[in-house]
Amino acid sequence: MTDLVVRRLLIDLETPFPGRWNGGDAFSSAFFNALSMSFPSGEQYFIDSVRAGLKALPQDKRDAMAAEVQGFIGQEATHRRIHALFNTNLERLGYDNEIERRTEARRQAHAGDDLRNKVAATAATEHFTAIFATWLLRRTDVLADAEPRLRTLWQWHSAEESEHRNTAFDMYQSLDGSHAWRIKVFKYITYVFLTDVLRQTVRNLWHDGSLFQLRTWRSAWAMLLARDGLFRGNYPLWRDYMAPDFHPSQHPADMARRWLHDNPDSFSAVGRPA
After folding, report:
1. Phi, then psi, of 271 in degrees rounded to 5
2. How far apart (Å, rounded) are the C-alpha atoms in residues 50 and 57?
3. Which of 34, 102, 109, 179 is deepest in the core (most CB within 10 A)?
4. How many helices (H) and strands (E) does the chain have?
5. What are the tens digits of pLDDT across the range 72-117?
6. Burial of 244 (0-12, 13-18, 19+ CB in 10 A)
């Protein structure tokens, strides 16, 4: 069982910030903005799926996972609220959140799916966010020139994503989900997640007038496809999920623990499983 602390992030998101908040870099700002736009709806889906999964477990397994699920829900609810505030600023700047509409439509279309399918989709997406979290905490240069409060936001979120990476996966296992179906859902989520985020990134770049600038796509290459880029550099970690004996705890989480230890002034703990 993982001991998950619910934390309140101590930053100001009421004061406006520019669309290109990451050191003026158009692509990285647009990409992070696209991720944030997807989070409130996505995190509500994760909360609903894991909460329903807990109720479906036999009593002994429910008792074993209850505290961890409580912490997971608390952390994800906090992420949902913080990114809703972040997204409100983007809306004021005229950005159109298409990814949220697409996510909601897909959520409605799959409302009647088997519960294990929803938990598998949550576990798959959590694998992506855990990979992204580790990469972002390691690659401190990516946010080196960012608005300081937003750098803190993304690093805090990354640390907590790494911290609760096991919960949905363990829930799926406890629901007796099969390996074959886990991989099928993972491949589907890979396609949906990447296409949705890249599509919203392009829309964001169109909005701020940087879509057809050469430096935009040089930045995209460096961030995503360079040797230690988000996509190319993390392919082995993505592939690990396919192994029949894979578990998220096999990937290190030391950078997340270190960031939380080294930045106590950035948040306050508001809850801990009993």
Report:
1. -170, 150
2. 11
3. 34
4. 10, 2
5. 999 999 999 999 999 999 999 999 999 999 999 998 888 888 999 9
6. exposed
